[in-house]
Design goal:
Layout: H1 2-7, H2 22-25, H3 34-37, H4 49-62, E1 69-74, E2 89-93, H5 96-100, E3 107-110, E4 126-132, H6 141-151, E5 152-162, H7 173-176, H8 180-194, E6 201-204, E7 216-221
Parallel strand pairs: 1-2, 1-4, 2-3, 4-5
Antiparallel strand pairs: 5-7, 6-7
Length: 225
Amino acid sequence: MKELSEKVLTQAKFPPEWPYNDKVDFSRQDETDDGIFYEPSRLVYHIDDFAVEALTKYYGETFEDGEDVLDICSSWVSHFPPDWKGGNVVGLGMNEYELSQNKQISSFVVKDLNKDPTLPFDDESFDKVTCVVSVDYLNQPKKIFPEIGRVLRPGGVCMLAMSNRCFPTKAFRIWLQTNDLEHIFIAGSFFHYAGMFDPPSCDDISPNPGKSDPLYIVKAAKKSS
């Protein structure tokens, strides 16, 4: 599986134009206000312990001390390495209490990116943007990913950690209709069509294939020029 998943984007042939029907493909079973759904605090992991450990290890191998990091769709934990010394580390999410309990960020912003898909930060503010098992909830990716590119510094990297768990009523339709390999392609396409990133790639860091949650990192660096 690792060989297959990591080849998805090396062999990807994206259509010339944005291929999605936004009103259909990014619709959800539950279109009520996301603020209502995310109002109850959930101080739980959304992937299993093995996947959490694998993600933290991956961040430890790719983060550098002093980097400014934005964690979007953030919560009470960002899975960053405990010994990592970040610079300006910001969490942006939906639940104020959850964000207030996150000891890995230095500040937070409460915002619904599905209502307003803009990031309230200056251009080139961050070295990395992370998003953990949540890209499937962002129903305006055509607008969000250029915003991610805007706030990243040249060469900065956005990392999407993805598994096969979700709240199905809030995940967008095309995600529920596709498999893990297709999810990698879809997430990679968001970078591609933003027009601001180098070609995306995938690292399969699934800790125990077939025995615990799979985990894929779909990532892309902002173009340097």
